[in-house]
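User: Could you write out the 3D structure of this protein bound to 3IX? I've included everything you need below.
Assistant: Certainly. Input first, then the structure.
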Amino acid sequence: MTIDLHSGTRPAGVDAAVAAARRVIDALVRAGDMTDADMSDIADRLNAVADDLDSSSPPVDDRLVDMWRGDGMTRHDPVAGRENPIAPPLDYTAVDSRTIEAEATLGLPYQGPPSCVHGGVSALLLDHTLGVANGWAGASGVTAELTVRYHRLTPLFEPLTITARQISVDGRKIRTTGEIKAGGETCVSAEGLFIAKHPPRPR
Ligand SMILES: CCCCC/C=C\C/C=C\C/C=C\C/C=C\CCCC(=O)SCCNC(=O)CCNC(=O)[C@H](O)C(C)(C)COP(=O)(O)OP(=O)(O)OC[C@H]1O[C@@H](n2cnc3c(N)ncnc32)[C@H](O)[C@@H]1OP(=O)(O)O
């Protein structure tokens, strides 16, 4: 069974609030202490927002059930999740029946070397994208091995194409590859071994 690549939007403004939080994260990293803003006041205001959210949030077990509803894409993961402010977020489209891709431009919160994407962030994006390609191709599982090769530095502030394709399914073993490209050049490639295993979703 394949999955819908889009997790959809919710009407309550959640996506807009999370997008605003993403802006805040980006703006904080950009400002550092080179700002005239009153950072103590900003901390108070951000803490007030967090207090509002904390006081109105459901028990975590209820939220876990909500996060995992359905059988396909979720909205909370740290790569494509519209409800997760640390996700860029990637938005996948199908290339063919085993291949997906997304475009993203990453900013300062994802920095490793100067003006370049952190290698761990690239590995995260690829791990997840390989996993979603498996869901799209119809045989998915958990990552057992991920081999990542860094060919050249991956730039911040430039459009990146992240692609993944399922290569083979042999019993429970699923092999999947992917890459991150900038300007048509491969910056990072990955090979993953996934094992068909589906931890039960909280219900
Ligand atoms: C987030 C959950 C996703 C699940 C997918 C669900 C639905 C898909 C829908 C939508 C897709 C959307 C999003 C998904 C996107 C991303 C996925 C998230 C990726 C992750 O973030 S996931 C977390 C990190 N991941 C782990 O936390 C795994 C922990 N680990 C284990 O859970 C076990 O360790 C396991 C299951 C790996 C194996 O355990 P096991 O007992 O089930 O199987 P067993 O050991 O018998 O191995 C069977 C055969 O695989 C070979 N084999 C096993 N491991 C190997 C290895 N490392 N290297 C080489 N070969 C290996 C054996 O050698 C044997 O081979 P043989 O049959 O030939 O002897």
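The pocket of 3IX is lined by residues 3, 72-73, 127-128, 131-132, 135, 140-145, 172-173, 193, 195, 197-198 (CB under 6 Å).
User: Perfect, thank you.
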